[in-house]
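Supplementary Note 3. Input sequence used for the single-chain structure prediction.
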Amino acid sequence: MNYSIIFENFSNWIEINYFFSIFIFFIFIILYSTFSLPGLLLFWVFGGFAFGIFASFIICLISSTIGCFCFFILSKYFFNKFFKKKFKKYFNRIDDLIKDSSLEYLIIFRLIPGPPLMVQNLVLSFLEISNYKFLLSTFIGLQPIMLFAILIGNKIN
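The predicted structure, written as discrete structure tokens, is reproduced below.
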């Protein structure tokens, strides 16, 4: 099977249906981030491949932030009571440690590439942080790894 023909046809379809494909990609990244499924990095690479650096970075950053925020709200609503009972003393210690400069710690936590996105979102949803701090730390913290992935995808193209 000749993969170069498939990629060329796919690229042609994206060029013909550019705004529709951006919209579909935007919605897909929101849904994928909402469920915090593994492999989001690969879709960021695909975005760099399909849409270029600038457009893909804006699309991925906004849609990933919205999706992570949806997961944050849902996990606060559904999982918070269950996990807070089991790990109350640990979360209270963490809340006490980050109380004064929580935004800086949250951004650093987002910059760490090790923990999966689902784990990051779950842990942050159990802490006593505001929605604004979560959105800002996600918006800033995801940028370096996202830009790296998008640049790789753009180089593949």
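The mean pLDDT is 88. The chain has nine helices and no strands.
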